[in-house]
């Protein structure tokens, strides 16, 4: 079954133990293929639910990380692109603390249920989880988080983004000597996001350039957004975790040095404060985001607010998908993978197989029998959509799989 939960005012009571966990991490080529098929299955479940609201953007390759994989979906209701991050690996500490659906809980759960909202912290809109994975134990399950889409790349790619023709047309040429004025407002975004977390008793614990992405703010200007909050730590003033809070700020020093090769005295003062955590144990002191922002204010007083870089709006879904989703309100059938409604997309006995039970075929055997995702079918149980087969270069029409051994 699939389960969607969104943030409510009251956090659900804790459960006794974790029940559902992802299947074991793949350790071989065949294991990786099986894992990828499992990810495809999860995406197909998302596409099949929510009344066709979410459609996988097959032009954007998924991005793999330490804890899982991020897929890009079109949200046809909001007419925007979103990220679905599916977790396939959890840290040991997560395994002792279940969420309300008895899945392991990590930092994204903490951020969602705490209600933290800040322009410089990635927005988490909901959770989708599913159990009873075909071919796996009953306790196997997968869980994904719907996140806002940051389409401007990460902090390392920021200088390259500024040279793109679209950005240059909106802002005019941006020169080397402007680097401090351009990059410092992004540093302010990061410091404000860290302060928001620290003020609420959380440490990010994984701040780095790759986990700071560029997105478009409501004013049309580019801003830095802290992402990848899987390892969020709830310290709430516990002195033993002070090192994690200071570590969040210390990393910002390295980002400043990378982006601003010829810093002004005010930037140097901010950098010295942030990098002071690197000193030996006797000289080391706890860093404070509020103090860092006071030093940033000194730079702002001397140099002004800096340059704000305008960005184009985030890409919108293809119009034919938006139109098809809108028609659904009038009772039309909808398949997010196809924008046409023809008799070819229906099975031979009149049943419609466009919902969550229709898997996308990935390989063929001859010209008649098609195989579902990862081979997870039982004899005589699945119909294959000819339109989907055509998109994958596979033959049609729909056929019923009669014998597992023939697939």
Automatic annotation (TrEMBL):
Protein kinase domain segment(s): 39-407
GO biological process assignments: regulation of autophagy
Protein name, per record: Protein kinase domain-containing protein
GO cellular component: cytoplasm
SUPFAM superfamilies (alphabetical): Protein kinase-like (PK-like)
Region (Disordered): 332-352
InterPro entries, A to Z: Atg1-like, Kinase-like_dom_sf, Prot_kinase_dom, Ser/Thr_kinase_AS
Molecular function via GO: ATP binding; protein serine/threonine kinase activity
């Amino acid at each position: 079954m699939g389960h969607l939960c969104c943030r409510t005012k009251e956090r659900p009571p804790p459960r006794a133990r974790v029940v559902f966990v992802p299947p074991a991490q793949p350790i071989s080529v065949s294991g990786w293929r099986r894992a990828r098929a499992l990810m495809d299955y999860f995406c197909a479940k998302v596409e099949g639910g929510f009344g066709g609201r979410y459609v996988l953007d097959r032009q954007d390759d998924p991005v793999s990380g330490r804890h899982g994989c991020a897929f890009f979906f079109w949200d046809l209701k909001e007419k925007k692109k979103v990220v679905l991050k599916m977790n396939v690996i959890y840290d040991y500490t997560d395994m002792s603390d279940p969420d309300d659906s008895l899945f392991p809980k990590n930092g994204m759960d903490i951020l969602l249920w705490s209600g933290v909202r800040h322009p410089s912290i990635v927005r988490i809109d909901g959770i989708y989880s599913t159990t009873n994975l075909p071919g796996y134990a009953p306790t196997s399950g997968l869980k994904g988080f719907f996140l806002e889409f940051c389409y401007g790349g990460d902090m390392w790619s920021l200088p390259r983004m500024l040279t793109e023709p679209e950005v240059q047309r909106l802002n005019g040429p941006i020169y080397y000597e402007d680097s401090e004025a351009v990059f410092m407002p992004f540093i302010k975004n990061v410091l404000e996001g860290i302060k928001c977390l620290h003020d609420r008793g959380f440490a990010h614990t994984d701040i780095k350039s790759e986990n700071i992405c560029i997105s478009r703010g409501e004013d049309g200007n580019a801003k830095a957004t802290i992402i990848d909050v899987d390892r969020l730590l709830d310290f709430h003033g516990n002195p033993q975790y002070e090192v994690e809070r200071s570590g969040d700020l210390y990393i910002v020093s390295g980002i400043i040095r990378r982006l601003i090769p010829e810093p002004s005295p005010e930037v140097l003062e901010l950098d010295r404060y942030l990098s002071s955590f690197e000193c030996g144990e006797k000289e080391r002191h706890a860093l404070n985001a509020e103090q860092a922002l006071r030093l940033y204010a000194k730079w702002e007083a001397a140099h002004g607010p800096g340059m704000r870089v305008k960005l184009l709006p985030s890409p919108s879904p293809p119009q034919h998908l938006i139109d098809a989703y809108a028609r659904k309100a009038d009772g039309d059938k909808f398949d997010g993978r196809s924008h046409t409604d023809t008799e070819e997309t229906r099975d031979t006995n009149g049943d419609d197989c466009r919902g969550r039970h229709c898997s996308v075929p990935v390989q063929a055997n001859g010209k008649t029998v098609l195989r579902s995702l990862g081979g997870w079918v039982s004899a005589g149980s699945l119909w294959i959509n000819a339109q989907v087969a055509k998109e994958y270069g596979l033959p049609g029409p729909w056929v019923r799989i009669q014998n597992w051994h023939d697939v």
